[in-house]
Amino acid sequence: MQLFITVGLTTLFSCLLFADATPPEGIYAPKCRVGEGLYDPAQAAVVPWLTVDLDLPPEQRYREIYGPFGAGMKEVIDTIKMMGTIVTGDWLIPLIEHLMQYAHDELFPSKYAKEIDGIAEATGLSVADLSMMNIYYELSRFCTSIVAENTNGQVFHARNLDFGQLFVWDIEKKSWHLTEALKKITVNLNFVKDGKVIFKGTTFAGHLGIITGMKMDQFTLSMNAKVKPDIGNVIKWLTGGYNGTDIHFGMWAEREVMEKANSFQEAKEFLSDIVQLAGCYYILGGKNHNEGVIIVRNETDVLDYVEMNTESGKWYVLQTNYDPDQEPLFIDDRRTPGNKCMMALGQSNVSASGIYEVLSSKTTLNKVCFRIFY
Ligand SMILES: *[C@@H]1O[C@H](CO)[C@@H](O)[C@H](O)[C@H]1NC(C)=O
Ligand SMILES: *[C@@H]1O[C@H](CO)[C@@H](O)[C@H](O)[C@H]1NC(C)=O
Ligand SMILES: *[C@@H]1O[C@H](CO)[C@@H](O)[C@H](O)[C@H]1NC(C)=O
């Protein structure tokens, strides 16, 4: 059984990895677009704001709010399955579904399992498919995150998502199919406790965690996946190898740190200490001077901190999907153009519109999906 799982998951994810190795825009020269007046704040209104009441029992928290997104979620799940089927044939998806049901029943923390039950009830989607969706993003996020402080001491935290690049190219719409599907289910959430918004997050309907978030008046956070998914760890996890360990998924951890930490420093410590299923990069911003850091994580340890230090000219931190001390894959180098573009912008021009333009530039963004500002 274990070998079977290994072969299945390895096939699926290595094919996705291979797909990622040839992003369509990667062949074009980088183009920095600062100063082009691209930013239209009105576009932000397209993403709906919903409220998650953390005082409700887990089954009820997402039921009402995610219910209306059932069709969009199904489209995303079908796209993931279609890719799996194209790549491997018909045998893989039933196996994955079986494993995901098992993960939900035996391995997920019970509050998350119950939250998934509520979403399944409201949308008619299966628990297995929703569990797959929750784990899937863990291994497939390609993006750029920036925290920058301008000369007035204002801090901006922004990120984009390049998910779509992994998926089906829609020639007519000149876009990736999953990107289109994901746009429809992108939501902003207000997480409420005792009737008060304690943090905000952006995610995809159906997901329990967040992609990026802000703890009110304290810190902002985004997380980028490493380019190499840790498939071995997923298999180890599914086969009971982490029994007894409090293991964290990145997007769920991002929500947890919002619930638990009450300052930039506490958040930094939380994100440095947890044991994770996969290595990743946390990009953390704070409200105070020089509060900006990239935490480079493997499963158990912090490998590096890249800190903001405006006094020595480091007025921003920028992270893609490669370790800061490693050369990015040459066809997917979003870091070098991203840094050049930030320099072209200059510290005094850091603003929502300035950073939007950096994130809209080739090849910081392989394909413009959406960007998030709070
Ligand atoms: C995990 O360990 C506990 C006690 O050590 C055991 O009862 C349980 O069956 C184990 N679960 C799995 C999935 O191996
Ligand atoms: C994670 O990093 C620590 C510290 O460098 C190292 O000891 C450990 O082996 C690493 N874990 C993996 C799985 O690479
Ligand atoms: C930055 O701002 C200055 C004025 O403060 C302006 O002259 C310049 O064109 C701006 N540069 C960019 C790249 O937006």
Question: What brief labels describe this structure?
Answer:
374 residues; alpha+beta; Penicillin V Acylase, Chain A; four-stranded antiparallel beta sheet; 16 strands; binds 2-acetamido-2-deoxy-beta-D-glucopyranose
Query: Which strand order spans the largest sheet, edge to edge or round the barrel?
Result: 1-6-7-8-9-12-13-14
Bound molecules: 2-acetamido-2-deoxy-beta-D-glucopyranose
Strand content: 15-25%
Largest sheet: 8 strands, mixed
Q: If you consult CATH, what is the topology?
A: Penicillin V Acylase, Chain A
Arithmetic mean of pLDDT: 77
Active site: 143
Domain Acid ceramidase N-terminal: 47-102
Family: Belongs to the acid ceramidase family.
Signal peptide: 1-21
Task: Give a nutshell description of this structure.
The protein has 374 residues and is an alpha+beta fold. It has one domain (13-47, 136-372): Penicillin V Acylase, Chain A (4-Layer Sandwich), CATH 3.60.60.
Report on this structure.
By secondary structure, the chain is an alpha+beta fold. It has a single domain (13-47, 136-372), classed as Penicillin V Acylase, Chain A (4-Layer Sandwich), CATH 3.60.60. Helix content is 38%, strand content 21%. It is built from 13 helices and 16 strands. It has an 8-stranded mixed sheet. It has a 4-stranded antiparallel sheet with strand order 15-2-3-16, with helices on one face. The chain has a two-stranded antiparallel sheet with strand order 4-5. Strand 13 and strand 14 form a beta hairpin. Helix 4 runs antiparallel to helix 8 and helix 12 packs antiparallel against helix 13 (352-360). The longest helix is centred in the first third of the chain and has 19 residues, at 2-20. It starts with a helix and ends with a strand. The relative contact order is 0.17. The structure holds 2-acetamido-2-deoxy-beta-D-glucopyranose (3 copies). Residues 106, 240, 243-244 line the site of one 2-acetamido-2-deoxy-beta-D-glucopyranose (NAG). Residues 1-21 form the signal peptide. Residues 47-102 form the Acid ceramidase N-terminal domain. The active site is at 143 (nucleophile). Keywords: Glycoprotein, Hydrolase, Lipid metabolism, Signal. Belongs to the acid ceramidase family.
